[in-house]
Amino acid sequence: MSSVKPYDMCWLDYRTLKIKDFDLFRTICIVDNDKSLEVPIKELKHFIKYSFKINPRVIKGSFDFSKYILIGKIDQMKDIIKEAKMWERKLNNEGFILKRIKENDKDILIITAKNERALVYAVFKLIENLRIGEKLDDLNHVDNPASYFRIINHWDNLDGTVERGYAGNSIFFKDNKIIINERTRDYARLLSSIGINGVVINNVNVKKKEVELITHKYLKILSRLANIFWDYGIKIYLSINFASPIYLGGLSTADPLDKRVSIWWKTKAEEIYDYIPYFGGFLVKADSEFNPGPHMYGRTHADGANMLAEALEPYGGYVIWRTFVYNCMQDWRDYKTDRARAAYDNFKPLDGNFYENVVLQIKYGPMDFQVREPVSPLFGGMEKTNQILELQITQEYTGQQIHLCYLGTLWKEILEFDTYAKGEGSKVKEILKGKIFETKYNGFAGVSNVGDSSNWTGHDLAQANLYTFGVLAWNPDRDIAKVVDDWIKLTFGDDSKVRENISYMLLNSHRIYEKYTTPFGLGWMVNPGYHYGPNPEGYEYSRWGTYHRANYEAIGIDRTSKGTGYTLQYHSPWREIYDDINKCPEDLLLFFHRVPYKFILKSGKTLIQQIYDLHFEGVEEVEVLKEKWYELKERIDDKIFERVSKRLEMQLEHAKEWRDVINTYFFRKTGIPDDKGRKIYP
């Protein structure tokens, strides 16, 4: 934890703090001689040293001081603090208590939890609270994570490349070797500081070389990597190839109902846990985009997932099974084939058939992380199955960390979406808390935006997306504006102008990006393969044309009960709202309906005019983002200012390209000019 590193420490870059009663931090008393508290004590000392410029003394088992920090597990705290028994009943296994007590000439700051991993979370939360300005006298927190799983998914390959990575190469792999260095531990610190408890280190698309990660060749060094992350309360997971028994075991089949296959996986699980006792489990992408799966053998997703779950169950491991299966058993020659229907059609009939240690990982929308989609109907549809919400922190379709596009505002909308599965109040966030259905292993998965760039995320302001993911995964009730303000203070300090301008930039950026790219839920108007830059007809949607099916008179797909029937996958009243072109939220109008260009919107404008207007507005608002940033020139570190400035310059040029290409496309399709007389055709 040296003070000078070849990379930034994001929101963990500690600065000098000036607070009253800093004498409280001169002494740290440990409840007992527990060596397992080494990491939380080390993190606490590190913070005190850099923020208060003092070296605290650490005392074990002695409390004869007037002012001190008291840290320890709550079962041992009960002999010292009489209220501890009552506190214990309020904690889950990862929750913690931060509390200041002043009585009998004693001034004690208490940090307690049920285990050392939760104490690490507690120390980081204490540090954060102090750095954002909370007063010591106000410390009185009982803080439990709302969901069981809070996992980062890396799409890293053994050769060091990162699929959909926009921040350099992998921090885990290089030249088919596993990297362990100082940055490895600092990454564990970053994730732990926002409450992450799991990390999948390799790509869900498991290529032939990556299949070997579950073999002796890699397991020994993986155990070292796992120990580093486990110190910070984080389990590692591995993406696996469903056909591994063929590739590695010499079997002729991977049929999940073949006893030889199940025995092979049980033996493999035993081997993995011998090396990594705290191994989290497997992430599986099956029967999708050429990844093998149970349908190859006429079996169901439940058959495949349960076979793996049985192998992991004795060790407390989990199978996380992705529901991204759009090309599984679909006939793309049929006009009514609708990719949006695929996940629900495949998994809804299996609800209740999965073992308890199987968790379905569901993309937030039914398609593929587009700029805007409706919330997947599987949330609210799978009443008897554990569910994880999959969000994409990396900006595959939202500017690839060249464009500023803060995703917290979008994620908050998703979490607040009411599925009506059990009547009003059945919000996605409540499902993930386990409060709507009787399932207990639910949570969040975020596709990582981290690479080996010096600032971790390519665009410095994209760090806010990673931070926000962790904060919302821990507590999805958090106010998003407050989350943004906290991140700014932790990263840039408490300058009011910096807070004001960057808050504006972040909170408005997703809507701005949406305006100049694909409003109304269009999506897919990007270049194929690398998913960047405007290409209105880049993706074909079966033999019937593009995803948006634009012609000279109308645009959009009829996903109503009279079209593909996708709206019928939702509970009422959403199925009726989405089914009605006059009631459907306009942000999703072209996702659910085929609409004539001269259709009148609620604003009184025609659809085509609003398309023109939004694309012009989007570019103008990027110019505002740039102005807001340039106002901070003397207030931001020079290297960060220059890096972000370059990205904003690129964003402005690319936004203009989007505006011109999309508006030109629709002008050519329709022959309808802009009402305001602006130049549409370049």
Blueprint of the fold:
Elements: E1 27-30, H1 38-52, E2 57-60, E3 67-73, H2 74-77, H3 84-88, E4 96-103, E5 106-113, H4 116-131, E6 140-143, E7 149-153, E8 173-174, E9 177-178, H5 182-193, E10 198-200, H6 216-231, E11 235-240, H7 244-247, H8 259-275, E12 281-284, H9 301-312, E13 318-322, H10 342-347, E14 358-363, E15 386-392, H11 408-416, H12 428-432, E16 443-447, H13 463-474, H14 480-492, H15 496-516, E17 554-555, H16 574-579, H17 589-592, E18 595-596, H18 607-630, H19 638-670
Parallel strand pairs: 1-2, 1-3, 3-5, 7-10, 7-16, 10-11, 11-12, 12-13, 13-14, 14-15, 15-16
Antiparallel strand pairs: 4-5, 4-6, 8-9, 17-18
Subunit structure: Homodimer.
Domain Glycosyl hydrolase family 67 C-terminal: 457-678
Organism: Dictyoglomus thermophilum
Write up this protein.
The chain is α/β, with parallel strands linked by helices. Among the domains are: 10-143, Chitobiase/beta-hexosaminidase domain 2-like (Chitobiase, domain 2); 149-476, TIM Barrel. The chain contains 19 helices and 18 strands. It has helices at residues 38-52, 74-77, 84-88, 116-131, 182-193, 216-231, 244-247, 259-275, 301-312, 342-347, 408-416, 428-432, 463-474, 480-492, 496-516, 574-579, 589-592, 607-630, 638-670, and strands spanning 27-30, 57-60, 67-73, 96-103, 106-113, 140-143, 149-153, 173-174, 177-178, 198-200, 235-240, 281-284, 318-322, 358-363, 386-392, 443-447, 554-555, 595-596. The strands form four sheets. It has an eight-stranded parallel β-barrel. Strands 2-1-3-5-4-6 form a six-stranded mixed beta sheet. A hairpin with a 2-residue loop joins strand 4 and strand 5 (106-113). The longest helix is centred in the C-terminal third of the chain and has 33 residues, at 638-670. The model has no long low-confidence stretch (mean pLDDT 95).
